[in-house]
TrEMBL record:
InterPro entries: AraC_XylS_family_regulators, Homeodomain-like_sf, HTH_AraC. It comes from Microbispora hainanensis. SMART domains: HTH_ARAC (SM00342). The keyword Repeat does not apply. This is Helix-turn-helix domain-containing protein.
């Protein structure tokens, strides 16, 4: 989940990525180890995947503030979490991004996850502590990535998947960077617009239209971070004009396009998530 703000120095953070990414479709991972004793506080920005943060810190712990509610340790951030911040010092964290169609099976409560940040223990019960213990038993990121794949993979095998039609619509939305029409997608899967809207929302916790807007925003945010001007980004991303882009960016991030372009997380996005 990208972050916003301009004061964080990523030179103090070691970033690890899997040597063999993509072994679980719809799942990507990165490990973060902060070496600075200074307290950091980062504002998070909406991202079109559900994000699992596994806290592996030795002494300190990551503190999350979601709309005024504080949580510590390992959490799951659903789509559109709103005002969401993370803070800590000398922390270590495994971050796992899951496509909504994968998260629906891994967590089984996609509708409840929409707009929420929940403790992993509330979703997995005792399995959350067991997962943390397995991951803490090694300091090797390669081994941690392997363990995490095993944990996620087992949960995927044990739980029902979303409807193939819902999965198709999500993948089309992602592939076309949000530039889709709901009626057209409904026709592709042979469903009525009403049925698609209902099934998509019940299984992924978000409407097809909102999902398209979120994916489009994410694409625009990365273009802004790459140095493209707002007017050009608006045209390339399918917004009516620059004012339309500004309204959408403020709606999703609470920031101006210029502020999103300077988000510190986006500065290392290609490092942590090379397949973005």
């Amino acid at each position: 989940m990208p972050s916003a703000g301009t004061s964080y120095d990523w030179a103090w953070v070691d970033v690890a990525v899997p040597r063999m990414p993509g072994r679980l479709p719809g799942v990507s991972m990165a490990g973060f180890r902060q070496r600075s004793p200074a307290l950091w506080d980062i504002r998070m920005v909406a991202y079109p995947f559900v994000t699992l943060f596994v806290d592996l810190s030795d002494t300190e712990t990551v503190v999350y503030d979601a709309r005024g509610r504080t949580r510590r340790g390992s959490v799951v951030a659903g789509l559109l979490p709103g005002d969401f911040r993370a803070a800590g010092r000398r922390v270590e964290c495994l971050q796992i991004r899951l496509e909504p169609i994968v998260a629906a099976a891994v967590f089984g409560v996609s509708a409840e996850l929409s707009g929420a940040v929940l403790a992993l223990e509330d979703l997995w019960g005792r399995d959350a502590a067991r997962a943390e213990d397995r991951l803490r038993a090694t300091t090797s990121w390669d081994e941690r990535f392997t363990i995490a794949r095993d944990i996620i993979g087992r949960r995927l095998e044990a739980r029902p998947q979303v409807d193939p039609e819902v999965a198709h619509v999500w993948r089309r939305t992602l592939a076309r960077r949000g530039r889709v029409r709901v009626d057209g997608l409904a026709d592709e899967v042979g469903w009525s617009r009403k049925r698609l809207w209902s099934r998509f929302r019940s299984q992924l916790g978000i409407t097809p239209k909102r999902a398209a807007q979120l994916v489009r925003f994410d694409h625009a945010a990365h273009l802004l971070a790459a140095g493209h001007g707002a007017a050009g980004v608006a045209a390339e991303s399918g917004y009516v004009d620059q004012s339309h882009l500004t309204r959408e960016v403020k709606a999703f991030a609470g920031l101006t396009p210029a502020a999103v372009a300077e988000a510190p997380w986006l500065a290392i996005d290609d490092v942590a998530w090379p397949s973005h």
